[in-house]
Amino acid sequence: MAVNKQLSSHDAMELDKDCSIVLELSESDPLFDKKKKLLQDMGFSTKEEIHVKRSSDPNWISTSLKVMLQIERIINSDETELYFAGDEPMDMYGPRNELEALNSILQLVESSLSSACLMQKNVLQEFHDAIVDMMSQSGNKNILETKIVEGYNSDKERKLLQWGENNGVKTRLEIAYVEGAGRGAIATEDLKVGDTALEIPTSLIIVEELVQADMCHALEKFEGISSETMLLLWSMKERHNGDSQFKIYFDTLPEEFHTGLSFGIDAMMVLDGTLLLDEIMAAKRHLHAQYDDLFPALCEDHPDIFPPELYTWEQFLWACELWYSNSMKIKFPDGKLRTCLIPIAGFLNHSLDPHVVHYGRVDSATNTLKFRLSRPCNAGQECCLSYGNFSSSHLITFYGFVPQGDNLYDVIPLDIDAAQDDFTEGSSISNWTTHMVRATWLSHNCNIFYYGLPSPFLDCLRRARSPMPHTKDLLPENLKNEIEILEDLRAICDDMMDNLGDADLDDRKDTNWDVKLAIKFKDIQRSIVSSVLTSCYCGLKLVKDELSKCLAEDTPGSKQI
C-alpha cells in the first residue's frame, strides 16, 4: 500500500515500526507432542511470530489471516480433531473450532491494539475488522431456521426473566418454544460479534456456598464427598422450599427430564448391541451406587435435614439429570472453578455451530457472567452456545438430545492389536493407542493408499498385518496386503451393520420420546458404518485395478504415487 508523501518523518518511522502477533503452543498442553508434530508437518513451529504490516499485496490481510487460522485451529484442537487431521487438516475441524481459533486471534489483536502506536493501531484495526468480518461470514454460512411453536404458554419463563431483570440481569433474549429443541433463547434484536446477549450477576448463580451449615455438618462423615454432590442434595430439598430465593427458577424446571438416564425398557432394547447402551447402563450403575452410599443412612440419622419423602431414588435421579443437563463450570475472580446452575442461561441450547463459545469466566470488574457473541445472531433467531465437543451418545445420555447437523464427534472406536515395538519417532501410528472411524468424505482425496479413512487407523492396520515397515510403493506385495486389509475391514463393518439391524421405516410420530432418540442414534451408527463400507469398496476397486496394471506390466522395480 503506497504511503502518502506528506507524512512527516516521525509518522514514517512510526509506520515502519514492526508490529507482530505471536501464536504459541503451550508446553503444558496435554496434546503438545501431537500438535507440535502436526504444526511441523505444515511448516510451522510451536511459536510463530506473524508480522502485521501493510503490503503492496492487496490480499495481505487475508493471506496473513489464513496462516494464523491454520496455526490456531491446531492449537485449539482436541484429540479427536487431531486424530482425523493427518490428511487434510483444515477440512477435519468443525465450525466451533474455527470460531475458537478466530476468537483467540481476535483477543491477541485487541491486546496489541491497547499498546500500539497510532500508525500501528490503524493497521491492527484493519486486521481486527477483517477478523470480525470473517466471524460474521462464518455465521452466515450456517444459519439454521428457527421455527417458533405458537400457542405455547410461557408465563413461568416470562416471570423468571422479570425476576432476573429485577435482580440485575441484562438480556437481549426472550424464551420461546422452538420446534425440535424445546425451550430456547431467542434474540429480540440483531446481535453482532462482540455483543453481550445475556449478563447475569453472581448473586443469582447457584453455587456451593448456598448449602446450609447443618447439611454440611451432616455430610462430614462421608469422606471425600464433592461440592457437586452437596449441591445436588441441596437442590433436591430446595425445589420444594416455598420461601426459596430461587423458587421462580425451580418452578420453570420440568417434572421429568428426558435424558438417556430415564430411558425405558423399549428404548434400551432398541439400543441392544450399541456402545450407547453400555454408556447408559454404566452411568446408572454409578448413580445407584452413589445413592446407596448416602441413603437411607442420611434420612435415618438426620430426618429433619433429609426428609425421606424428598430423598427417594426418583428424586435423586431428577436432581442428577438437572445438574448433568443444566450446570456449567465457571471460573470466579478468586481463581476457583465451580460447577453452577445459572437461572435463565439454562435456556441457551447447544449447537454444533454456536453463537457463544467463551462464557466460563466471571468478569471481575462487573462481578457478572457475560455471554458474548462470537458470530452474529439475527432478531428472531435462536441464540445457542456450545456445551462442549461431545458425541451424540454423550449428549443423549446426559442432555437428552441429538444435535442438528453432522457431529464430527460421532465416532466408532475400534480395537486393533498391533505391536508397538520398533515404531520410529514421528511415526503417525506411534502417537495413537486408540483408533476410531467416522463418516467419511471420499470426494476430498481418494487415492491408492487413502480412501477417506484416517491415516493413523490405516497405518495401524498395515502394521498389524505386516511387521515390515510399510512403504507407499506400487509393488504387488504392497497392493495385495492393502486388499487383505480392506477386505478384513469390510468384513468387520458388515458384521457391525448386521448387528445394528435394518433401519426402522415405521411411522415414528407416535413413538415414545426415548425410543425416538434410540432409533435416531442407531441411524447415526448405520451412517458411519455405511460410509466406511463405501470407502472400503472404493479402495478395493482402486487397489485391484492398480494391481492388475502392475501384473500386466510385469516390470521390475516400483513407481511412487
TrEMBL record:
Which residues belong to any copy of the SET domain?
A: 171-388
Short name of one Pfam family? Rubis-subs-bind
The residues that cross the membrane are: none
For the keyword Mitochondrion, the answer is no
Gene3D superfamilies registered for this protein in UniProt: Rubisco LSMT, substrate-binding domain, set domain protein methyltransferase, domain 1
One molecular function GO term is: protein-lysine N-methyltransferase activity
- Keyword field contains Methyltransferase: yes
Q: Which UniProt keywords apply?
A: Methyltransferase, S-adenosyl-L-methionine, Transferase
Which residues are in coiled coils? none
List the InterPro entries.
Rubisco_LSMT_subst-bd (IPR015353), Rubisco_LSMT_subst-bd_sf (IPR036464), SET_dom (IPR001214), SET_dom_sf (IPR046341), SETD3_SETD6_MTase (IPR050600)
Q: Which GO terms describe its biological process?
A: methylation
Q: What is this protein called?
A: SET domain-containing protein
Q: What is the lineage of its organism?
A: Eukaryota, Viridiplantae, Streptophyta, Embryophyta, Tracheophyta
